Automatic annotation (TrEMBL):
Keywords: Metal-binding, Oxidoreductase, Zinc. InterPro entries: ADH-like_C (IPR013149), ADH-like_N (IPR013154), ADH_Zn_CS (IPR002328), ER (IPR020843), GroES-like_sf (IPR011032), NAD(P)-bd_dom_sf (IPR036291). The lineage of its organism: Bacteria, Bacillati, Actinomycetota, Actinomycetes, Micrococcales. SUPFAM superfamilies: GroES-like (SSF50129), NAD(P)-binding Rossmann-fold domains (SSF51735). Belongs to the zinc-containing alcohol dehydrogenase family. Its cofactor is Zn(2+). The keyword Zinc applies. Its EC number is 1.1.1.1. Residues 10-343 form the Enoyl reductase (ER) domain. This is alcohol dehydrogenase. It comes from Arthrobacter koreensis. Gene3D superfamilies: Medium-chain alcohol dehydrogenases, catalytic domain, NAD(P)-binding Rossmann-like Domain. The keyword Zinc applies. It catalyses: a primary alcohol + NAD(+) = an aldehyde + NADH + H(+); a secondary alcohol + NAD(+) = a ketone + NADH + H(+).
Length: 345
């Protein structure tokens, strides 16, 4: 079968021919219908060899959907031909966190070396993929896999991040989304669907700001140093109730910190890193909660898919064939995609 693999540190991923995998006991093989292109893939492919821990060659793709094609020994309650989305943050299924569906915070994944598809295990950018357990399949039903595959990460991750701040997003509140890419443009829609907060979006690219308005942001601003003041002015200088930062580099950390109000939430979802001023006399707002959530829970994936079924969220997708997948990554790297790129094998 064909697969898109990251094979050499620092080089672009390649389409290669590899053996079609067979499902072992307890596993399920999917004939892949769609695979989403995430900036996290670009992040891991930018790492130097000393920091790269995902194994080589790596079949990419941690957003996946497919048709159940072959069922391993002992797997019950699912049938060949069913259309499924893949829950990606695989855990052990046994610990306290996994028992409540929060496999994204599995306490044993490190010990047992359990890794997500496309981020260690072979991913969805191939004609077929192996899912380690039927527990990690969520029925898509009538939802179009191509338009909805990215909800498994670009929907689930912002959903999980926003759910943790719902208490603060009462009517009259203001929420800010920094970075209107794959995740950010879905975050805006989730905020509009779940809360009555005013939604403000920031990006460095004008086309992304137009997309932000199209999907429901009430205000948009170029992401530059003066933006913190412009956003604060919308709140009469009080500051905003929650910032969701899908970039999280030093520039956006500073921006977020410059606009969040006392007792607000500062939620860092992007794969950046930097420093925040902390402490009572640091000049930072008081009693702010800073969180760095990772992906989301199994039940939250059901909830996100239901938001799509009810028409509340819609992923803006750009479709590529598997042969063209390297060019999708090239465009992602150059920030030339709008919404999410989806590979259809
Ligand atoms: P993307 O490339 O689709 O979007 C990134 C957006 O950020 C683009 O619109 C870009 O114009 C914008 N941007 C870049 N610099 C900016 C700045 N200084 N200010 C404002 N906007 C800026 O990326 P994506 O796939 O949506 O992923 C977003 C981030 O989330 C990535 O860092 C990714 O690794 C991370 N991520 C985290 C999790 C998690 O579990 N927390 C899950 C998936 C992705
Ligand atoms: Zn991702």
């Amino acid at each position: 079968m064909k697969a898109l693999q990251y094979r050499n540190i620092g080089q672009a991923p390649e389409v290669v021919e590899i053996d079609t995998p067979e499902p072992g006991p307890g596993q399920v093989r999917l004939k892949v219908t769609a695979a989403g292109v995430c900036h996290s893939d670009e992040y891991i492919m930018s790492l130097p060899e000393s920091e790269y821990v995902y194994g080589l060659p790596l079949t990419l793709g941690h957003e996946g959907a497919g048709i159940v094609d072959k069922i391993g020994e002992g797997v019950k309650y699912i049938e060949e031909g069913q259309s499924m989305a893949v829950y990606g943050p695989w855990g052990c299924g046994l610990c306290y966190e996994c028992s409540s569906g929060r496999e994204n915070y599995c306490r044993n994944a490190g010990t047992y070396g359990i890794t997500p598809p496309g981020l260690g295990a072979p991913g969805s950018m191939a004609e077929y993929m192996i899912v380690d357990s039927a527990r990690h399949l969520v029925p898509l039903g009538d939802l179009d896999p191509v338009r909805n595959v990215s909800l498994t990460d670009a929907g689930l991750t912002p959903y999980h991040g926003i759910k943790g701040s719902l208490e603060k997003l009462h009517s009259g509140a203001t929420a800010v989304v920094i970075g209107v890419g794959g995740l950010g443009h879905v975050a805006i829609q989730i905020l509009r669907a779940l809360t009555s907060a005013t939604v403000v979006a920031l990006d460095i690219d004008e086309a992304k700001l137009n997309l932000a308005s199209d999907v429901g942001a009430q205000y948009t601003f170029p992401s530059e140093a003066g933006a913190a003041t412009m956003v604060s002015d919308l709140t009469n200088g009080l500051g905003v109730d929650a910032v969701f930062d899908f970039v999280a580099n030093q520039a956006t950390l500073d921006l977020g910190q410059g606009m969040v109000r006392h007792q607000g939430d500062h939620v860092l979802l992007g794969a950046g890193a930097g420093n925040l001023k902390m402490g009572l006399v640091s000049g930072a707002a008081w009693d702010v909660s800073v969180r760095s959530p990772y992906w989301g829970s199994r039940s939250e994936l059901f909830e996100v898919l239901d938001l799509a079924r009810s028409g509340n969220i819609r992923v803006h997708t750009e479709v590529f064939s598997l042969d063209d997948a390297p060019s999708a990554y090239e465009k992602l790297k150059n920030n030339q995609l709008l919404g999410r790129a989806v590979i259809v094998p």
